[in-house]
C-alpha cells in the first residue's frame, strides 16, 4: 500500500483522472483537491459546505454531492453542484426536490444515458432526523425522487450494463440492490423490502461510499473496522480487506479504481487524512464518461 497524500481534511469522493492524478473532496475543508502522481496537492475548486461524492459527467465537468457541512454547527444546506476544473468554478444545480430541501447529498454515479443517481443520507440535528432518499437526474436536468424513505443511504453504484442499482446503508451496514427497469426507474419493491437486501455485516460497522469491480462485486468503504468490504452480486460471498497495522484508520470512506488496466484501488482514509493506493484482486469497472478526463 502506497501513501499518495497526507494532511487532507476528511477526504472522500476519489476520482482517478486520465493523467494519473486523483481528485478528492475534502469535506472538512470545503474544497476539491487534485493529488498529482508525485504527491503534489493542488486546490481544484473551493465549494464551501461539505463536498462529498464526485463523478465526471458527459460534459467533462465534475458533479459533486455537497452535504452542506457534515457537522451541525457548520451546516449550510445540502446541494448538488457542478465544478469546472479548468476554471475552478462551482455552480449550484439543486437545493431541493418538489419543495423539500436536500439534507445531505452523499454519493453519485452516472448511467450510460448521461443521467445520474445520487443518495441523500439525511441529517440529524438535535432530536430531529431527516430520513434519506435516492434521487435520479435525467440527462436533460429533471430531478426525481426514486426511493423514500431510505435508511441512511450512502454509497451508490451501478452494475455492469447498468441493470442494477446498489446503495449502501451507513447505520445498518447493509447493501441494498434494486433492478433498473428503465433509465431512472426502479423495480416496484417497496422501501425496506427484505428482497432488496444484497448483503450485510453482523458486527458493529458502518458502510460508507462504494465502487464496483468489473466482475460486478460491490466494494464498500467500511467504517469502524477500517477497510473495504467486498460483496458479490448475489450476496453469497463477503470478503473483508483490512488496512495494514501501520496505516490503521477507522474511517475508510471511499474507493475508486484507476491505472492503465483499472487494477489500482485508491482509498480515502478520513481519520488520518490520507489518500492511499494499492493493487486490487479484480480490475475496477470503468465508469461512464470518466476515461480520458484530465
Automatic annotation (TrEMBL):
<dbReference type="InterPro" id="IPR051262">
    <property type="entry name" value="SMP-30/CGR1_Lactonase"/>
</dbReference>
<feature type="binding site">
    <location>
        <position position="154"/>
    </location>
    <ligand>
        <name>a divalent metal cation</name>
    </ligand>
</feature>
<dbReference type="Pfam" id="PF08450">
    <property type="entry name" value="SGL"/>
</dbReference>
<feature type="domain" description="SMP-30/Gluconolactonase/LRE-like region">
    <location>
        <begin position="10"/>
        <end position="270"/>
    </location>
</feature>
<feature type="binding site">
    <location>
        <position position="208"/>
    </location>
    <ligand>
        <name>a divalent metal cation</name>
    </ligand>
</feature>
<feature type="binding site">
    <location>
        <position position="106"/>
    </location>
    <ligand>
        <name>substrate</name>
    </ligand>
</feature>
<dbReference type="InterPro" id="IPR013658">
    <property type="entry name" value="SGL"/>
</dbReference>
<dbReference type="InterPro" id="IPR005511">
    <property type="entry name" value="SMP-30"/>
</dbReference>
<keyword id="KW-0479">Metal-binding</keyword>
<keyword id="KW-0862">Zinc</keyword>
<feature type="active site" description="Proton donor/acceptor">
    <location>
        <position position="208"/>
    </location>
</feature>
<dbReference type="InterPro" id="IPR011042">
    <property type="entry name" value="6-blade_b-propeller_TolB-like"/>
</dbReference>
<protein>
    <submittedName>
        <fullName>SMP-30/gluconolactonase/LRE family protein</fullName>
    </submittedName>
</protein>
<dbReference type="GO" id="GO:0046872">
    <property type="term" value="F:metal ion binding"/>
</dbReference>
Amino acid at each position: 500500500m502506497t501513501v499518495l497524500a497526507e494532511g487532507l481534511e476528511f477526504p472522500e469522493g476519489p476520482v482517478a483522472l486520465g493523467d494519473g492524478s486523483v481528485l478528492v473532496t475534502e469535506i472538512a475543508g470545503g474544497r476539491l483537491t487534485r493529488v498529482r502522481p508525485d504527491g503534489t496537492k493542488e486546490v481544484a475548486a473551493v465549494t464551501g459546505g461539505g463536498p462529498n461524492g464526485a463523478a465526471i459527467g458527459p460534459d467533462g465537468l465534475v458533479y459533486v454531492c455537497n452535504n452542506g457541512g457534515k457537522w451541525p454547527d457548520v451546516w449550510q444546506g445540502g446541494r448538488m453542484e457542478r465544478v469546472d476544473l479548468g476554471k475552478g468554478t462551482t455552480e449550484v444545480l439543486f437545493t431541493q426536490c418538489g419543495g423539500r430541501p436536500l439534507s445531505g447529498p452523499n454519493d453519485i454515479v452516472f448511467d450510460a444515458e448521461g443521467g445520474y443517481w445520487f443518495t441523500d443520507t439525511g441529517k440529524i440535528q438535535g432530536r430531529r432526523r431527516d430520513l434519506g432518499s435516492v434521487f435520479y437526474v435525467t440527462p436533460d436536468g429533471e430531478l426525481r425522487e426514486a426511493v423514500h424513505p431510505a435508511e441512511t443511504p450512502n454509497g451508490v453504484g451501478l452494475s455492469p450494463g447498468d441493470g442494477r442499482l446498489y446503495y449502501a446503508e451507513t447505520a445498518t451496514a447493509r447493501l441494498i440492490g434494486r433492478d433498473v427497469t428503465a433509465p431512472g426507474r426502479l423495480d416496484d419493491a417497496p422501501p425496506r423490502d427484505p428482497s432488496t437486501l444484497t448483503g450485510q455485516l453482523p458486527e458493529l460497522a458502518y458502510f460508507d461510499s462504494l465502487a464496483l469491480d468489473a466482475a460486478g462485486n460491490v466494494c464498500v468503504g467500511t467504517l469502524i473496522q477500517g477497510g473495504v468490504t467486498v460483496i458479490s452480486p448475489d450476496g453469497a460471498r463477503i470478503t473483508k480487506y483490512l488496512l495494514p497495522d501501520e496505516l490503521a484508520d477507522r474511517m475508510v470512506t471511499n474507493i475508486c479504481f484507476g491505472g492503465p488496466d483499472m487494477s489500482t484501488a485508491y482509498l480515502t482514509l478520513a481519520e488520518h487524512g490520507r489518500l492511499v493506493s494499492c493493487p486490487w484482486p479484480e480490475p475496477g469497472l470503468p465508469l461512464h464518461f470518466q476515461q480520458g478526463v484530465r
